Amino acid sequence: MSFIDKMYESLDGAGDGPLLIEVHGKKLVETSGAGLKQLVLAARGLLSARDVVPGDRVALIAHNSARWAAADLAILGAGAICVPMYDRQAPRELAGMLDNCEAKLVLVDTDKLKGELLAAWPEAGDRVEARGASARERKIVTFDEVFAQRHVFAQPVPRAASDYVTMIYTSGTSGEPKGVLYTVANVDYMLEQTLEGLRTMVGTRSGPDRVFHYLPFCFAGSRIQLWSQLARGNPLMVSSDLNNLVEELGTAQPHYFLNVPTLIERIRTGVGSKLKERGGIAYGLYSRAVEAYAREQKGSASLGDKLALGLGRRVVFSKIRAQIGKNLEFLICGSAPLSEETQRWFSMIGIPVYQVYGLTETTAIVTMDKKGVARPGYVGRALAGVELKVSDEGELLCRGPNIFPEYWKRPDATGKSLQNGWFHTGDMAELTPDGDLKIVGRLKDLLVPESGHNVAPGPLEEKLASLVPGAQVMLVGHARPYLSAIFAGQADSSVVQTAIDALNQELPHYRRVRKFYLSPEPFSVENGLLTANQKLKRNAVEKHYATQIDGLYS
């Protein structure tokens, strides 16, 4: 039985009980297993009416919702290859991917998005029998039309382990996005690992887990989260407004949820800033307890430190935990390494953060923290059946049942990434004798200034960002006399200079930051300087600020 069959069974198993819950401000809108099944059957009717057959690519472009999940299940059940895309991505970029994957059908959630795609993707009419605007309009279908269709009662099309089920485009930090294909076997294996990981983290519980999710379902890690919860029949609470996360989290009151470092870092700095603004006894206790915890971790805590830490936990940390989430048991963090300082801070207040590491090409996950053995600064140990090694150049290589078989119609790129059975991640890493993995930077992101030294910018950018709250940071200096930094967002020049001075004291000459540029414009998806999952597009940033960067070296 494949993961698709298990998810279809969950629809029947849940019956009238909730299976997907949309969070709208202070309101929870439930979709039962039976209700989700009705949506799936309607979508299957649309796919049947449009002659979608196994192997066809069907794109899914929408914000997270019960209807997103139903459309995904319908496409998978029909034997087609679901190609999810980020609905906030530029229409011209979406059009490029739609053309590349030769989408037979495109499902979108709004008329607005349909209109933007029609304008950006003139090729849409070239691959259907009819011609002209009507053909293009038939190819791009809104959810209102999808879920108004006549129901088709059908079980999932049987799938072999090697059959392709989905294609997820890489975020393209340094080039054209590539379609990563997953097989049934890839996903079957990964869901076994995630479900076992959840059992270990959660333990036994009398009722269902309260799970909240805000990251777009089109990302690999989000998709695995969705499928994991559906396969086990556990309700999943889904954000409806990324601009209203604070209220939604208050409504959802989850036991745990998946994060990217950006949000977790924001929570830590926000708490510290608010306490500092208020001042008084509470801030004094907090500061003293933080210092005591740091010494405790180093094994040098005095009796006074232990007393201060105990008082801080009872009086301050408990209130911080309640504000973040009264039911919160732990957090899961992926997409990029979390700073050691932030991971320790959450442990200090009693909310452990478990890291996972992976790429789109690894079916989202390579390593995963385990309860009780997570090490701040590391991203866990390899999943069962996955092998890791570090090359002579410092690059992490991995192989196992999680590795994708190929990029869509990109044999050269596939050959470069997959060599002798090993996937070349492009990440620079360190492995301890116990198997703990630490990511230290991107191999292709290395800066080599005129001194000839190799400098991984990631760790330095992370440290500077922690010293200048609210700022985004990117280092430049490849083939230049020295390193410089771009600080984007609201940042004070004196604060930035103080942060750079503090950082430089710890570094050898070739890794020191000599100059900086302040940009009031933040890096964002909308201005093309971040990928859809919030990673820097380094080439785009350097091009965008070319004049300013040149000024730093004039």
Description:
This protein is of the alpha/beta class and 554 residues long. It has three domains: 3-183 and 213-242, Rossmann fold (3-Layer(aba) Sandwich); 261-326 and 330-442, Rossmann fold, CATH 3.40.50.12780; 446-552, ANL, C-terminal domain (GMP Synthetase, Chain A, domain 3, 2-Layer Sandwich). Helices cover 41% and strands 20% of the residues. The chain has 19 helices and 23 strands. It has a nine-stranded mixed β-sheet, sandwiched between helices. Strands 16, 17, 18, 19 and 20 form a five-stranded antiparallel β-sheet that branches. A four-stranded parallel β-sheet has the order 4-3-5-6, with helices on both faces. Helix 1 packs across helix 9 and helix 16 (457-467) packs across helix 17. The longest helix is centred in the middle third of the chain and has 22 residues, at 303-324. The radius of gyration is 24 Å and the shape is globular. 45% of the residues are buried. Residues 125-133 have low confidence and may be disordered.
